[in-house]
Design brief:
Elements lengths: L2 H22 L21 H30 L2 H30 L2 H29 L1
Helix pairs in contact: 2-3, 2-4, 3-4
Amino acid sequence: MKAYPVLIILALATAAASVSCDKLRNPLPTMQAPPVGAQPPAQPDADRTSFAQAIQLEIDELRDAISVLKAKAESARADFREKLIEEAVRLEAERVNIQVQLGKLKNATGDSWKSLKETVRTAVDNLKSSVDKARSGSN
């Protein structure tokens, strides 16, 4: 019979120890809701991505057209060759500049993205026009 009180005391001591250990643990941090009206972190927008992809395709096409102009320049008469090579080098420099602007556009936010979008669009259109003029002049 003496075993029962010992077991009961042991059970109560174990229960008391486990309850007190729960109180010693640090509570888990609670997650706070974002403030009302707060916007989620900025992520690349679908419009920006599709614009950048479309511009990249145009830049690649222009790079190919400039390469064709360079090839034509190599086979042209000596007096005409110099002019075509200079034009091709100038067009290539413009293309590289647009590629750099496109890189900036991909990382831009807010109003700077809209401004860069217009700048890049205008630069691509101008380069297309210049390449078309160079093509017509090389024939």
